[in-house]
Amino acid sequence: MTTLTHTHPTADADYELLAARFRPLFARIADGASRREQEHELPRQEIRALIDAGFGALRVPVAAGGFGASLPQLFRLLTELAAADSNIPQALRAHFAFVEDRLVSAGPQRDVWLQRFVDGEIVGNSWTEVGTVTIGDVITKVSPDPGSTDGDFRISGTKYYSTGSIFADWIDTFAQRTDNGVKVIAVVSTHQEGVTHGDDWDGFGQQTTGSGTSTFDHARVEAGNVIDFDTRFKYQTAFYQAVLLAVLAGSITAAERDVAREVRNRTRIFSHGNAPSFAADPQILQVIGEVSAAAYAADATVERAARALQHAYEGAFLADEVEDERRNDVAELETAKAQVVLSALATRATSDVFNALAASGVSTSKNFDRHWRNARTAANHNPWVFKARIVGDHSVNGTVPPRVWSIGAAPGAGKP
């Protein structure tokens, strides 16, 4: 059988050289993805192999020891990786976001962090407060350490949805200073007492992202690692969403791959079918073709969103505040539109693919349903219905989209 190489809409020689470095790793990751999910085995070795190959330093400039990948190149790679195991791009979501933040930052800490990324250090995430915390409140606190001669801090609090933190050397933590009330990012080393992480995420999809509860008990934070939140890179929300877009696109491709192989190898047919084999039945081929077309559209959608992010990144260096803001607003709108489209497309395609199978296709041993469960779970992050309204408000009224938002209990909830 001849298989044509998939050509990305904007594939280029530089990207192919970059991707060739990681595709053998992606193939090995794909081989064990279903088993890891069934056995709830976290992809520690797989993530470490990627990081050791330089994956975590994709965006670090070549002059600093990285690959200097553009954002479209990064998101193409994340989409390919998601087709191998959709959990891993999400597990690395916070890492790449923090890399992005350091790329647009200034000062001596920038070079320190870029070197850490090149050295293979990983950053996790810890932003969401546990329990009925009123929206806008931050319970996790950072306090000056009276015993430190270097102006260091101590952090205490509990966070949930700490995606990727179980694999990480550092945790990007949203907190509030007790001395001046400023909301900050505290970058906490995981290699110390006072930092614990539980793999207690109980979702029906994306089960091996290493999400769960992170607890900080007077853990040390270096003074240089307490960063005012207001200085965070402006396109962060769009960036986080774009990683989920890659997860959705990769999930469609993975479903197409697995079910096409099942159809190709199937020997049983139905008397009321259309051909002497499933692989030749035109109705079955139509189902696979429609899913393949959905994967194509998803790839193109991720590509367009990534280009908007690249423009936002470049806007940070223009010394033109008006244009910088415009580019960030465009990036937010582009990723919101993409989310609305891909949430429906991915969940539908990963469900429709079962139309090419018989009853044996729903066997838990085959685990084909994981693609729908993973897509459905990724689509439930950041509810798309709110994004659709925001896009519509911009279209009708010119309302600028919010670029930072939070989640929590409604004011007065649970109180007499």
UniProtKB/TrEMBL annotation:
Q: Which InterPro entries match?
A: Acyl-CoA_DH_C (IPR013107), Acyl-CoA_Oxase/DH_mid-dom_sf (IPR046373), AcylCo_DH-like_C (IPR036250), AcylCoA_DH/ox_N (IPR013786), AcylCoA_DH/ox_N_sf (IPR037069), AcylCoA_DH/oxidase_NM_dom_sf (IPR009100)
One Gene Ontology molecular-function label: monooxygenase activity
Per the UniProt record, one Pfam family is: Acyl-CoA_dh_N
Q: Does the keyword Magnesium apply?
A: no
Q: Which UniProt keywords apply?
A: Monooxygenase, Oxidoreductase
Question: Would the keyword Oxidoreductase turn up in this protein's UniProt record?
Answer: yes
Q: Give the top-rank taxon of the lineage listed in the UniProt record for this protein.
A: Bacteria
* Domain Acyl-CoA dehydrogenase/oxidase N-terminal as annotated: residue spans: 28-121
Identify the residues that the record assigns to the Acyl-CoA dehydrogenase C-terminal domain, covering every copy: 258-382
Q: Name one GO biological process term.
A: L-leucine catabolic process
Under which name does UniProt file this protein?
Answer: Monooxygenase
Originating organism: Arthrobacter agilis
